[in-house]
Amino acid sequence: MTHPLPMSRRTMLQNSLLGAAAFGVPAILAGCSNPADQGTPGTGGAAARGTVSVGSNASDEVPKKALQTVVQAFTQADVKINTVDHNTFQENINRYLQGRPDDVFTWFAGYRMRFFAEQGLATDISDVWQGIGADYTPAFKQAATGSDGKQYFVPFTYYPWAVFYRKSVWEEKGYAVPKTLDEFTALATKMKSDGLVPIAFADKDGWPAMGTFDIVNMRVNGYDFHISLMAGKESWTDPRVKQVFDTWRGLLEHHQPGANGRTWQEAAQSLQQKKTGMYLLGMFVAQQFPESDLDDLDFFAFPEINPQFGQDSVEAPIDGYMISAKARNVEGAKQLLKHLASAASQNVATKLDPGTLAASSKADTSGYSALQKRGAELVSQAAHISQFLDRDTRPDFASTVMIPALQRFIGKPDDIDALLKDIEAQKTNIFR
Amino acid sequence: MTRLRARRHSSRDVVVLSIGLGVAIGVNVAFIWGPTLASIVLSGTDWNGISEIRWVGVENYHDLATSYPPFWTAVRNNVLWLAFLGLVATPFGLFCAVLLDRRIRFSRLYQGALYLPVVLSLAVVGFIAQLVYSQDYGVLNAVTGRETDWLGDPSVNIWVVMVAAAWRHVGYVMIIYLAGLKAVDPALKEAAAIDGASETQAFFRVVFPTLRPINVIVLVITVIEALRAFDIVYAINKGRNGLELLSVLVTENIVGEASRIGFGSAIAVVLLVISMGFIIVYLTQLFREER
């Protein structure tokens, strides 16, 4: 429902029709646990450990092909991939994991992973991590660790969020990458006088504005406060939160107006058509650029606001794999996770899906596109990696409270105090 | 007495009756009353679908009314929706039916054009509405040269979406009334005309009252359409930012990853109570007539 990457590759039609049919969905999921459909047999003739089933939300063509290709190289067991529409998969994850889940399933790092681990719906894979731990930076390991200190998740790929722009436009007008908020504002003012809408913006789907909130909060108050706020441990009426919205409100006049009625695809197209000057989004923004314009796309890290934190945090949602608590072939599943954790597998995936980066630090980056290389560099320089608002907090809080709240802020940016009071009241109800 | 005795059921009748009725009652309880009661019970709990069910009494209702801003917007929108369909779209459908009934030129063409949207599902109407209303690419802004954010501005969007919903509703109502008007005995109109009634008088005093059974059907359809409205706003922006409806909030809380089952059930119960209000009024009317 609120996940950036997959939304991107889906047409509006598919998306909403499937959403509307969500009531009928558990049956579909149940049907898919039966490893009969869409099987991708492993190439291994021995099949010593039987079959491993994988529940995949990679319903879009590119990631689907990437997973299939990666899995084909796995020889220790047969693998059956059961692909379910991305949004459907997410919306039914509760019922799926309690019903007859597949052995391995695709999921997201952060709070969203910890939540299911805490409910006892995931298998502890700390032993797998003893073998693969050296391939990951501590930040990735932390993102794969549950609240009990054990690992439940294998990071596969990720994609950073940054401010994207077209090099040709910037060269032509002589713009320079802003390092601080003041420079950022000055640049925006200059763009406006040059007839550009400075910052492309869209929040019709409810989640893109979360990216702006996250990065402004981490720049103003730092990563630790952000995560603590997401975990429900801080008050939303805290002056520090108010400062985030105040800062954002100051920037909002440079944003494309009417964001609540625009999809991110439309906003990305305005960047591509040189109507807007820059756009804060995930690397998947590139999907809206034709092949010939891709080399013209570049980005910079969101500028510093509070010198105490500088630009030390970056938002980079990690996708990966977990083993369900009800897995029938745990041993085979663990072997498969090791295979997925290998640099070789991730190289294959990032080559097929250039909107993503390999999570393993051993991955070979020489095959990366220019944009991928810059993305990897951005993340490797960051001290903290956040996952995205809807992955760093409770799903019910993200979808039923934060989406309406941020849309309300965009519509009426001057009403911050009442807004924060409302968020806090709902947070108290949800996090009790 | 003999008549009564003749009506007494044989044991075979009793078996047949209890099987027939029993199945109906069983299905009814399992698929209607069971889930309804379950919703009511769940609305008093805090449950995410995984952990233990925790009893919280009326807390969900309290939270709903005091600290869930989308709720009151949704109630307002549902009422608006009902009023708009009932007071604008339905009379307009009747008006179209009356015009078409007069066999004006090209009436077949108009009839087809007005009825066409009815074959589309509301979800599809939602997509069409986006093509028309989109701020950057919509037909409306392109033609008028405006920059209005029709779908993103919460003070405007509910109205334009209701217009889109009414586009479909008008055709639906029109075709039902048209059928009703065709069935009205022309002699009635003639008689009224001979008695010196103007056309307006003839319609309101003579024709309209004979349409009473049709009116009841149309009323029920309108109420049902208003309360079950869901797909069009869900297709447009998932029913957020000014397009909240109770049905959407129920889905949003229960079906999605959120899984606030207790809270969502409380919203569902509110929707149930509102529907019950209309159902009770309708049924009492119906039974009074039969007597």
Automatic annotation (TrEMBL), chain A:
Region (Disordered): 38-59
Keyword Ribonucleoprotein belongs to the record: no
Ion transport as UniProt keyword: no
SUPFAM superfamilies xref list: Periplasmic binding protein-like II (SSF53850)
Residues spanning the signal sequence: 1-30
Key words of the record: Signal, Transport
Family: Belongs to the bacterial solute-binding protein 1 family.
Name used for this protein in its record: Carbohydrate ABC transporter substrate-binding protein, CUT1 family
Organism: Streptosporangium subroseum
Lineage of the organism: Bacteria, Bacillati, Actinomycetota, Actinomycetes, Streptosporangiales
TrEMBL record, chain B:
Domain ABC transmembrane type-1: from-to ranges: 75-282
Keyword field contains Transferase: no
PANTHER family: BLL4140 PROTEIN (PTHR43227), DIACETYLCHITOBIOSE UPTAKE SYSTEM PERMEASE PROTEIN DASB (PTHR43227:SF8)
Biological process (GO), any one: transmembrane transport
Membrane topology: Multi-pass membrane protein
GO annotation, cellular component aspect: plasma membrane
Alphabetic keyword roster: Cell membrane, Membrane, Sugar transport, Transmembrane, Transmembrane helix, Transport
Organism of this sequence: Streptosporangium subroseum
InterPro entries (UniProt xref): MetI-like, MetI-like_sf, UgpAE/MalFG_permease
Family: Belongs to the binding-protein-dependent transport system permease family.
Annotated transmembrane regions: 12-33, 79-100, 112-133, 158-179, 261-283
Protein name: Multiple sugar transport system permease protein
Compartment(s) of residence: Cell membrane
Cross-referenced Gene3D superfamilies: MetI-like
